[in-house]
Design brief:
6-stranded parallel β-sheet, about 30% helix, 6-stranded mixed β-sheet, UDP-N-acetylmuramoyl-L-alanine:D-glutamate ligase, globular, Protein-Tyrosine Phosphatase, Chain A, Rossmann fold
Length: about 450
């Protein structure tokens, strides 16, 4: 049973889903938001008690349960005071897992979460399984409780995992770890350990052999997963082998699908496909459905998305590359796809990252990088083949002037969008509009 005095911190889509859930149980919660005019405020019933424009401590300390938005760190002083007073602080995902009767597939990682989550969801749907897909992608998790489901696939961010102690997934994976959100976490290890919590109480942990940071053995041994398997680019477990003169995705050296049949490019997407198959096997999704989806899946919008070919130059939108690891994966994904030179557009909010892993690429794969946004100065210092502009309009114009037929322009900014755009989707849509106008 839920507590009767519930405070929801953070409105928007997730907060509104928490409100609907509470009301469905006959509980009228209190709403709080740090923003003066939060999105969704116009949808609140008149009888809802609300506090906007900051965190007000008195109603927080009166609550029996606080449901906090992923965007509000637990380290926030007011939340720390509530916790010290013995008030339980959870997220919407915690409410969901406590109420969900269906098995849960849980997916996290620095990059590729949405791709793998979508693949597993489509595989289940292809097999005729009643599946719900949500969490950090698409539908807020609590809204999935409105329908009867046989399987739930959740994409989970590190922020969400901070407030979801009861997760006990049927299968859980950490796809990869690279520097991200270091403006919120004290170190890469702190960030990694927050991600690894997804393995707690999981029936099966699925890690990436190419990334030592994803190993469940790094987890506190008090709560290990019962079983584990892995995916990677060699022949072990879920992997790759040579077969009939080409590379195939495989399971314990049994060939399953030629890499050439994938429409999503790059070794990072081969790893995504292998992770999806491992998760799908644990969910008892037939292999035929898995392979059907892998053959047809063309990728998600804003993730290495082909935009247009203009005067022989290919333009690719990967605005979702909001950290260095994602940008490096996007660059690798272009290998073997383009004939000419690669031009990179980068910049935005760096989130405290170390950009130096881009240096070898700037000295090798990349003809030039044009930089804009809040942290452009850090990017400009990486190499001599960098150029500064004030905004995305200038970046597209500069690349159009540099690139010739056979070249590729990749928009993989390695940064968040919030200096100039409300979200990465709007940034990507602006890029597409600019390219289409060339």
């Amino acid at each position: 049973m839920l507590a009767k005095r519930i405070l929801i911190i953070g409105l928007g889509q997730t907060g509104l889903s928490c409100l609907r859930y509470c009301l469905s149980l006959g509980i009228t919660p209190v709403i709080m938001d740090t923003r003066a005019c939060p999105p969704g405020a116009d949808q609140l019933p008149d009888n809802i008690e609300r506090y906007f424009g900051g965190l007000t401590l008195a109603p927080m300390l009166e609550a029996q349960l606080i449901v906090v938005s992923p965007g509000v760190p637990l380290a926030t002083p007011e939340l720390q005071q509530a916790l010290a007073s013995g008030i339980e602080v959870v997220g919407d995902i915690e409410l969901f897992v406590r109420a969900c009767p269906a098995p849960i597939i849980a997916i996290t990682g620095s990059n590729g979460k949405s791709t793998v989550t979508t693949l597993v969801g489509e595989m289940a749907a292809e097999a005729g399984i009643k599946v719900g897909v949500g969490g950090n992608i698409g539908t807020p998790a609590l809204d999935l409780l409105a329908v009867e489901l046989e399987l739930v696939v959740l994409e989970l961010s590190s922020f969400q995992l901070e407030t979801t102690p009861s997760l006990a997934a049927s299968a859980a994976t950490v796809l990869n770890i690279s520097e991200d959100h270091l403006d919120r976490y004290t170190s890469l290890t702190h960030y990694r350990d927050t991600k690894l919590a997804i393995y707690n109480n999981a029936a099966l942990a699925i890690c990436n052999r190419e990334d030592a940071h994803t190993q469940p053995s790094l987890l506190d041994q008090a709560t290990p997963a019962l079983l584990s398997t892995s995916f990677g680019l060699n022949h072990q477990a879920y992997g790759r082998i040579e077969h009939q003169g080409e590379l195939w995705l495989s399971h314990y050296q049994v060939p399953l699908l030629p890499v050439s049949a994938l429409k999503i490019l790059g070794t990072h997407n081969q790893l995504n496909a292998l992770a999806a198959m491992a998760l799908a096997d644990q969910a008892q999704i037939p292999q035929s459905a898995q392979l059907t989806v892998l053959r047809r899946f063309t990728g998600l919008a804003h993730r290495c998305q082909f935009v247009a070919e203009k005067q022989g130059v290919v333009w690719v939108n990967d605005t979702k590359a909001t950290n260095v690891g994602a940008t490096l994966a996007a660059i690798a994904g272009m290998s073997g796809v383009i004939k000419g030179r690669l031009w990179l557009i980068a910049g935005g909010v760096g989130k405290g990252q170390d950009f130096s892993p881009l240096i070898p690429r700037l000295h090798g794969d990349i003809a030039g990088m044009v930089c804009f946004g809040q942290d452009r100065e850090q990017l400009l210092e990486l190499a001599d083949n960098t150029h500064e502009v004030t905004d995305l309009n200038g970046a597209v114009a500069w690349c159009a002037a540099q690139a010739v037929s056979g070249d590729c322009v990749l928009f993989a900014p390695a940064c968040a969008s919030l200096d100039l755009y409300d979200n990465y989707q709007l940034r990507g849509e602006h890029f597409i509009t600019l390219v289409e106008a060339l």
